[in-house]
């Protein structure tokens, strides 16, 4: 007989998930990426950016004429971080980073081309690439990190990169290297995508330096757009992208893909993981349906409710369990992430195992386990996401601890934030809305909005009572 401890919802982090290929959900955003429709893949932390990065990196044939070049490993940003800090004492650091990203791109793309075409017939462009990289000490992709870590005393112009390894000075024309790479790709009728992920981990303790490094990356992206066969694909948190300053940044809108998950995709995400348990899958779907890898909405719902009870709370008008969970992983911008859905279900499984809650005989996880999981989820979301990613906002957020109600007018927030300065309040409230801690309950500007609300996800951790509401308000489930 299957029990809760037989379930495996997997890891919410792409780099730790061994079954990612089997459990991957093909979303509209992923289809757009592989069709080449966007170069900036944006989303909240946990939205699945690294999952798409890993799928592209591992997927050898998105299409025949395409070469995928990961700019970093799935584990982190150590490759380019070891390269970029040399610019910290430069006067114009954004321009320095602008050049450094192009240097880096020329090296990793060149090494990837040499590796892929090492047994091909003689080619003058490829020979140039090989001679250049051999001259500076880079021979193959696996040696790049070690090479970068040895670099000292960098000097860089718009054309030439000069550096020292030990006491030996070396230099190369990175613009010409990029040009030869473009010519080679054009000649072979190939396109190369250079992927950059984990950019939020770049200079984590120095946010101003990270901002300048990423602004330099935007300039490098713009410069390299002239090379038609070389495309940079930049995976970045939406909140970080929004802080970057760049001339004509609005022109990037057509190149942006923002990752958002709807209820049906999140249901499929969890149900596909449930289906990995053969006993559950055979019992719910039967042998004919199990053989199909497609998890449609009907199959997904049947699998989900083979594990979870129908409702968390009793009552005719109470939400179904999935809807109950979904409402509690929505942030103030109305966005739910796959990481939060996986984490929530994992906490519910752990709660059922540890507390041994009574449950319906044919289900594995009770409504009480789900309710207990919500408390754990809320605390982790507050501490490991909100406070960790936005530490500067922690003192403001803590002013909401113990609030008797989750909804606030602008006047309420003035008192809560202990200021009468209109501009200061509007600025702080906007910041809290931007990070998803507050929900603007209208489409109006903040100064014209009648009511704001702390989303469900943060209420238990901050001791904010959900029951408190004004006369005439109706509580949603």
What does this structure look like?
The protein is an alpha/beta fold. The protein contains 20 helices and eleven strands. The strands form three sheets. A five-stranded parallel β-sheet has the order 2-6-7-1-8, sandwiched between helices. It is globular, with a radius of gyration of 26 Å. It starts with 19 loop residues before the first helix and ends in a 15-residue tail after the last helix. The relative contact order is 0.11. The C terminus is likely disordered.
In short:
This protein is of the alpha/beta class and 477 residues long.
Brief descriptors of the model:
477 residues, alpha/beta, 5-stranded parallel β-sheet, 3-stranded antiparallel β-sheet, 11 strands, 10% strand, disordered C terminus
Overall mean pLDDT stands at 86
* Approximate shape: globular
As residue ranges, the low-confidence spans are 468-476
**Count of DSSP H/I helices:** 20
Radius of gyration over C-alpha positions, nearest whole angstrom? 26 Å
Question: How much strand content do the residues show?
Answer: 5-15%
Instruction: Tell me the number of strands.
Output: 11
Q: Specify the helix fraction band.
A: 40-55%
Secondary structure layout plus pairing:
Blueprint: H1 20-23, H2 28-34, E1 40-43, H3 49-58, E2 66-70, H4 78-81, H5 93-116, H6 124-136, H7 144-150, E3 151-156, E4 160-165, E5 168-173, H8 174-187, E6 191-196, H9 207-224, E7 230-237, H10 238-243, E8 256-258, H11 263-274, H12 278-290, H13 297-307, H14 321-328, H15 338-355, H16 367-389, H17 394-397, E9 407-408, H18 410-416, H19 422-434, E10 439-440, E11 452-453, H20 459-462
Parallel strand pairs: 1-7, 1-8, 2-6, 6-7
Antiparallel strand pairs: 3-4, 4-5, 9-11, 10-11
Helix pairs in contact: 5-6, 5-8, 5-9, 6-8, 11-13, 12-13, 15-16
